[in-house]
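Methods — Computational structure assignment.
A single polypeptide chain was analysed. Its primary sequence is given first, followed by the predicted tertiary structure written as structure tokens.
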Amino acid sequence: RNNEVLFTRTLVDVPWSPKAHYNLGVFYLDERGDARRAKPHFESVLGFYPDHVLSLMCLGDIASGERDFDAMERYYRRVLELAPAQEAVRRELERYEQHNRQQGERR
């Protein structure tokens, strides 16, 4: 709760703070499990820093949870362009591609 208050107050005083947006997004996502409230904060970070890998990863995770696999794929591919060593993201994309191939074989 204290973190939420701190980050929210920071955004009232400094609404252009990408760090406060990122931290509040992480708080909502990790501490509250509230992807709906977290998402706009990560999107705000990308408005300041379009190549912010951690925000891209979080948005990919949120898109996956929302079953928006096209968005998930876009976010994760961008992460791998910027940070090719992100093995967890690579594995998630491979699972997604394997699932798509299996679905295509069933048709």
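Note: The two ends are 49 Å apart (CA to CA).
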